[in-house]
Design brief:
- The chain has helices at residues 25-34, 50-59, 72-83, 126-137, 162-172, 184-194, 208-217, 232-237; strands spanning 6-9, 16-17, 20-21, 38-42, 69-70, 88-91, 114-117, 141-144, 150-153, 156-159, 177-178, 201-205, 221-225, 244-246.
- With 256 residues, it is an alpha/beta fold.
- Strands 5-4-1-12-13-14 form a 6-stranded parallel sheet.
- Helix 4 crosses helix 5 (162-172).
Length: 256
């Protein structure tokens, strides 16, 4: 890829699916290291904190420093710090709340400054959504850690945060601030850390909208992999097309 000096790489669906690494993914990352490409990982994963994600990748055989991983909670924390406000209602699951410990005060009995919604799995109930709705109607700001429609779980396609964020937007009349992909501000966090302009970076992902579309609008080139939640019908109707399509990240060397 002429002119490309670095890559932003998605995690779920690109490096691994469920608890299994994609065949050849570890070797592909080692190839990037040997070839002196700069790279960072940008994931809309919101069920695990950054430290847990790094540990999980290590267990799968990936040698990836924690500081190379960028997730929506990092962007949300940066936004919250700028406001000087701290009262948060977290509609999340897993241990992602650990990323917010230093900036958020979570008191369910108080009026909230922020309603923060991630992929919350079984924590999404009528009661939890209604609680979030009431906080929004009382003045809280709606923060979407991501707005993906679905993702590929170990047992098949599963709803992500997007449908529930949109329900809260519809009910409250508010528009969520999106922290993860395809937000250009989110991509900028990783690009700035790399020290590269978007024109010298390509995004590798499995989502035609958040990865490929987001990369296009951020001024990057893109590589779509046929793993994870890749769907040919979604590519066919998409208005933004990837620069390259490969079977998996294991074939990245074919287009370098």
């Amino acid at each position: 890829m002429n002119g490309i000096k670095g890559f932003l790489i998605d995690l779920d669906g690109v490096l691994y699916i469920g608890d299994q690494p994609v065949a050849g993914a570890q070797a592909a990352i080692k190839t990037l290291m040997r070839s002196d490409y700069t790279f960072r990982f940008v994931s809309n994963t919101t069920r695990k904190c950054r430290k847990t994600i790094a540990s999980r990748l290590s267990a799968m055989g990936f040698e990836i420093p924690e500081e190379y991983i960028f997730t929506p909670p990092l962007a949300a924390v940066a936004h919250i710090k700028k406001t000087g406000k701290r009262r948060c209602y977290l509609l999340t699951t897993g241990d992602v709340d650990q990323d917010f410990e230093q900036v958020c005060v979570c008191d369910s009995g108080a009026k909230q400054d922020f309603v923060i919604v991630g992929d919350a799995g079984d924590m999404i109930t009528y009661d939890s959504l209604n609680t979030a709705f009431r906080y929004l109607m009382e003045g809280a700001e709606l923060i979407a850690l991501e707005k993906d429609r679905y993702w590929m779980a170990h047992d098949g396609l599963s709803l992500s945060a997007g449908p529930f964020v949109q329900a809260l937007e519809f009910a409250s009349g508010k528009t969520a601030i999106i922290m993860g992909k395809p937000s250009t501000a989110f991509f900028d966090l990783a690009l700035n850390d790399m020290g590269l302009p978007p024109g010298q970076v390509a995004m590798i992902g499995d989502d035609i909208t958040t990865d490929i579309g987001g990369a296009y609008h951020a001024g990057m080139r893109s590589v779509l992999v046929r793993t994870g939640k890749f769907r040919q019908d979604a590519v066919r109707i998409a208005t933004v097309k990837p620069t390259h399509i490969i079977d998996s990240i294991a074939h990245l060397e074919d287009i370098l």
